[in-house]
Specification:
The protein is mainly beta and 800 residues long. The protein has seven helices and 54 strands. The strands form ten sheets. The chain has a 22-stranded antiparallel β-barrel. It is 6% helix and 54% strand. The radius of gyration is 27 Å and the shape is globular.
Length: 800
C-alpha cells in the first residue's frame, strides 16, 4: 500500500514536471485567445486551443519564448517568468503589428521579421465579422486581392497583374493547381470552405522556389482547422454552429464543426451547406448591366421570358456542400500524424457572362452552364521533430485530389447540347526539412513529385430525342508530372538584418494523346520535357522596433500544362482555340521594395513597390492548322487561334496601407492598390494586361469594445476607359458599360458597408451587416456579373 502511494505521488510529481499548461487571454476582455503561437528557434512550437491553453512542458528552461497572435502585441518571456506569473499570460490588443507568425513563405512557421516577401494574413475573427459567402470573397475582404466573377458561383483572384494559372493555391500544404488550370478566369477557389479556415495567407510576388510552376504573381495559402488534443484527463469537446441569411441572393447557409480531443488522439468533423438564389443587382448604375430576360425550355421550344424583377440576374442561383474530416495522432513528442479528408460539390450553375451574349437581336444561348464542380482531397501529413545531422524537423505529405468539372451549352433553338466533362486525378508527395546549422543560419529545403492524370470526354445530346453520341473532347488524354528539389538559406547577419537566398530546379514532363476523329490535327501526340531553374534573394532590415525595410529579387516560371497545350474551345464568337504542342515555359523576373513604420504606437504606414518582367509569355494568338486560318466549329466558321510563346509583358505597381489607432477603441485604416501592365501584341504594339486590375482599395472605420465589434467600410474601384482596355476585352460588349461613342469601358464604383458582431454570451455571437448601403449597380472590372445590390446579412454562431 505504501509502495502504491509512493508510486502515485511519483507519477503526480512527474506529471507536474512534464506537463505544464499555459493559459493566454485577452488583456481587455479576459477571454481566452485561440491559435496564439509560442515558439523558440525552429524546433520548439505550440499553439493554444479554443480555451487559450497550450502545453509548454518542452519549453522548460528556455530563456526566450516568443508569444504571438494576430491583432495582439508580441511578447517575449522566459519559462521562469511565465512560471512566476502562474502560467497565465494576458496579451495586449493592437492593430499595429510589424511582426507575426507566417507559414506560407517557407511552409514552416517563421516570423515575418525574417521574410522579405510581402505576406498578409486573414484571421478567423475577421472572417466571422465580415461573413464572406465564398473563399473568393474571403480573399477579397483583405482589400489587397482583386476578385473577378463571371457568375455568382465563381471568383477569380487577381494579384499584381496576374491571375488564374499564374497564381498558386495551397490547401494544408498541398498544391491545388492542376494541369487544367486555365489562363481564363477560374472558379476553383470556391471549393474551399471559409468556415474552417484556421488561417489564410497571401504571399505577393514570385513563390516558385518553394511552390514550383504557376507561382508567378503570388501564393494563396489556406490552412484549415487543426484537431486539438485535451490537456487534461477529460476529453476536449469544442466546436461551433452557424446559421446565416443574406437578402440579395436569399442565401441560406448552415455550418457545424466539432473537435473531440484526447491525450494522443483528436478528431475534427465539419459540414457546411450553402443555398443561393439568383443574385439581385443594385438600382443605381449603368443600364447596360441590366439583362431583363432569361431563356426557358417550354413544350420542346426555347422561350425568351421577361424577368418579373429586371434587377435579378437569371440564371445565377446555385448551391454547395462541403465536408471535412480530420484525424490526428501524436504518440510522443517526436511524431505528429494528421490525416485530412475534404469533399466539396456544387450544383449545376449558369455562366452568367455567356448568357448575356446576343445573336440576331436575341439570346445567343439557351443554355451555358457549368456542371457540378467536385473537389475531393485525401491528405496524410507526418511530422518528425528531432534534431539530426541533416534536419531538426521533417514534414512528409502524401496527397490525392480528385477534380470533376463540366461545361454544358446549347445555342438558342438548336437541338444539340454540347457537354464536355473533365476529370483530374492528382497525386503529390512532398518532403520538407528545416535545419539550423548555427545560431544564425537556417536551411529550408525539400523535394516534390506531382502527377496529374487528365481525362476529358465530349458528348452531344439531342434535346428533342434524348439521344447522346460522342462529341469532341475539350482536352487530350494526358499526364503531367513535376519533379523538383529546392533549398532556401536564411542567415541572420545581425539581430537587425536577415538575408535569404533560395533556388529550385524543376523538371516538367507532359504527355498528351490527341483524338483526330473530330478535328484533323496534323499531330496525334504532344510530348514536352522542360527544365526550369528559379531563384530568390532578399533581405529584411529593422533599424529599430518601429521600422522594417525589405527587398526581394526573385524569378518564377510557369510550365505549359494540358490546358495550354491541348485545349479546344470557343474563346469568343467566331474564334476557336486549338492545340499547340510546341510550347515552352514562361519566366518572370521580379523586384520588390517595402517599408513599414509605426509612429508613436498610433500610426502604421506600409508601402511596397514592385516590378515584374514576363518573358516567353503564353498568350492567345492567330494560328494556322494544316495551312488554314479558319475551321468550322459548332456550325460556325471560326478563326483559328492557339496559345503561343509570343510575347513579353511588364507589370509594376504599389501596394500601400495606413492604420491609425484612435482613442476609445476606434481605429481607421486604408489600403490602396495601383498596378499597370503592358503586354506585347503580335504586330509589335502593346496592350494593357488583361489581369492588371484598375486602382482599387478599401477604407475602414473600426470600433472594438468588450462585447461589441463594428466596422464601417468604403470599398472603391477606379475607372478603366476604352483606350486603356486590353485588346482581348474590347469585343466583350455584353459584360461592360458603353460610353457616349458606343465603346466599352469599366466605370468607377464604390460601396458603403456596415458590419457588426455582438457577443450575446460567452458562447453565442450575433453578427449582422448591411452591404452596399446606397444600392449601387456596379460590376468589378472584367466580371460578367454585377455585384450584389443592398444586402442585409444576419448570422448566429454558437461556440461550445
Amino acid at each position: 500500500m505504501i509502495k502504491h502511494s509512493l508510486l502515485c505521488l511519483f507519477l503526480l510529481c512527474n506529471l507536474g514536471i512534464f506537463a505544464q499548461t499555459i493559459i493566454i487571454k485577452d488583456q481587455k476582455t479576459n477571454e481566452p485567445i485561440e491559435l496564439a503561437t509560442l515558439s523558440s528557434g525552429t524546433r520548439l512550437f505550440a499553439t493554444t486551443n479554443n480555451e487559450g491553453q497550450a502545453d509548454i512542458s518542452k519549453f522548460k528552461d528556455v530563456s526566450q519564448i516568443e508569444i504571438r497572435s494576430l491583432g495582439y502585441k508580441t511578447v517575449v518571456r522566459s519559462y521562469e517568468e511565465l512560471k512566476i506569473d502562474g502560467f497565465v499570460l494576458p496579451l495586449q490588443p493592437t492593430n499595429l503589428n510589424l511582426d507575426e507568425v507566417v507559414i506560407s513563405a517557407s511552409k514552416w512557421r517563421q516570423s515575418s521579421d525574417d521574410v522579405p516577401a510581402k505576406v498578409i494574413s486573414i484571421s478567423p475573427k475577421e472572417i466571422e465579422l465580415q461573413n464572406p459567402q465564398t473563399a473568393a470573397d474571403l480573399l477579397g475582404i483583405s482589400g489587397k486581392v482583386f476578385i473577378q466573377k463571371s457568375q455568382q458561383g465563381g471568383g477569380s483572384p487577381m494579384i499584381r497583374g496576374f491571375s488564374t494559372s499564374r497564381l498558386l493555391y495551397s490547401v494544408d500544404g498541398v498544391r491545388m493547381n492542376t494541369a487544367i488550370f486555365r489562363s481564363g478566369n477560374l472558379q476553383n477557389v470556391i471549393n474551399l470552405d471559409p468556415f474552417v479556415m484556421e488561417n489564410t495567407e497571401v504571399v505577393f510576388g514570385p513563390g516558385s522556389v518553394v511552390y514550383g510552376s504557376d507561382a508567378i504573381g503570388g501564393v494563396m495559402s489556406f490552412l484549415t482547422l487543426t484537431p486539438q488534443f485535451s490537456l487534461t484527463a477529460s476529453p476536449l469537446i469544442t466546436g461551433k454552429a452557424t446559421a446565416r441569411y443574406s437578402s440579395a441572393n436569399k442565401e441560406k447557409t448552415g455550418h457545424f464543426d466539432v473537435n473531440v480531443g484526447f491525450k494522443n488522439w483528436s478528431f475534427l468533423t465539419s459540414i457546411s451547406s450553402w443555398d443561393f438564389d439568383n443574385l439581385r443587382q443594385g438600382s443605381h448604375g449603368p443600364d447596360d448591366y441590366i439583362r431583363d430576360y432569361h431563356v426557358q425550355r417550354q413544350n420542346g421550344t426555347d422561350v425568351v421570358i421577361t424577368n418579373d424583377d429586371k434587377l435579378l440576374q437569371i440564371p445565377s442561383a446555385y448551391s454547395q456542400i462541403n465536408m471535412m474530416q480530420k484525424v490526428r495522432f501524436q504518440p510522443n513528442e517526436k511524431f505528429d500524424f494528421q490525416y485530412g479528408f475534404h469533399y466539396s460539390e456544387t450544383s449545376e450553375y449558369g455562366r452568367y457572362d455567356r448568357h448575356q451574349r446576343v445573336k440576331n437581336g436575341t439570346a445567343r444561348y439557351a443554355e451555358w452552364n457549368y456542371g457540378p464542380q467536385i473537389w475531393m482531397m485525401n491528405n496524410l501529413g507526418i511530422s518528425y521533430n528531432e534534431s539530426t545531422s541533416i534536419f531538426d524537423q521533417m514534414n512528409i505529405r502524401l496527397a490525392h485530389q480528385w477534380f470533376e468539372e463540366s461545361r454544358i451549352d446549347r445555342t438558342l433553338n438548336k437541338s444539340d447540347r454540347s457537354i464536355n466533362e473533365e476529370e483530374v486525378s492528382a497525386f503529390s508527395f512532398n518532403a520538407d526539412f528545416i535545419k539550423s546549422t548555427s545560431g544564425k543560419n537556417t536551411l529550408f529545403y525539400g523535394i516534390e513529385y506531382v502527377l496529374d492524370d487528365v481525362k476529358s470526354v465530349g458528348k452531344i445530346t439531342d434535346v428533342t430525342t434524348g439521344i447522346t453520341e460522342a462529341g469532341p473532347s475539350r482536352y487530350p488524354k494526358s499526364t503531367w508530372q513535376s519533379i523538383a528539389a529546392y533549398v532556401t538559406d536564411e542567415y541572420k547577419m545581425t539581430d537587425r538584418f536577415t538575408l535569404s537566398a533560395g533556388a529550385r530546379y524543376n523538371q516538367i514532363i507532359l504527355d498528351s494523346e490527341f483524338d483526330t476523329t473530330f478535328y484533323p490535327f496534323p499531330f496525334t501526340e504532344a510530348k514536352l520535357n522542360n527544365g526550369a531553374l528559379t531563384g530568390s534573394l532578399g533581405g529584411v532590415y529593422r533599424p529599430s522596433d518601429t521600422w522594417v525595410l525589405s527587398t526581394n529579387l526573385g524569378t518564377a516560371f510557369r510550365a505549359p500544362n494540358v490546358d495550354d497545350v491541348g485545349k479546344v474551345f470557343d474563346s469568343a464568337p467566331g474564334q476557336v482555340v486549338v492545340p499547340n504542342p510546341d510550347l515552352k515555359p514562361e519566366y518572370a523576373y521580379n523586384a520588390d521594395l517595402g517599408v513599414a513604420k509605426v509612429i508613436a504606437d498610433v500610426i502604421k504606414i506600409d508601402v511596397t513597390g514592385y516590378y515584374t518582367h514576363l518573358k516567353n509569355s503564353m498568350l492567345r494568338r492567330d494560328y494556322k492548322l494544316n495551312g488554314q486560318d479558319s475551321i468550322m466549329y459548332q456550325g460556325e466558321m471560326s478563326k483559328i487561334q492557339a496559345i503561343q510563346n509570343s510575347a513579353v509583358a511588364n507589370v509594376y505597381g504599389i501596394q500601400a496601407g495606413v492604420e491609425i489607432k484612435l482613442p476609445q477603441g476606434f481605429g481607421l485604416s486604408t489600403d490602396v492598390n495601383f498596378q499597370k501592365g503592358k503586354e506585347e501584341l503580335e504586330n509589335g504594339d502593346t496592350s494593357p494586361m488583361r489581369h492588371a486590375a484598375p486602382f482599387f482599395g478599401i477604407s475602414r472605420l473600426n470600433y472594438n469594445a468588450e462585447k461589441l465589434s463594428m466596422e464601417f467600410n468604403f470599398v472603391f474601384n477606379g475607372k478603366r476607359d476604352f483606350d486603356d482596355m486590353p485588346n482581348g476585352e474590347k469585343s466583350k460588349k455584353e459584360i461592360y458599360a458603353l460610353d457616349e461613342n458606343g465603346n466599352i469601358y469599366s466605370p468607377a464604383w464604390y460601396t458603403l458597408n456596415f458590419k457588426g458582431l455582438y457577443k450575446l454570451s460567452n458562447s453565442i455571437d450575433l453578427t449582422a451587416g448591411i452591404e452596399n448601403l446606397t444600392d449601387q449597380r456596379y460590376r468589378p472590372y472584367a466580371s460578367g456579373i454585377s455585384g450584389a445590390g443592398r444586402n442585409f446579412i444576419m448570422a448566429l454562431t454558437a461556440h461550445f
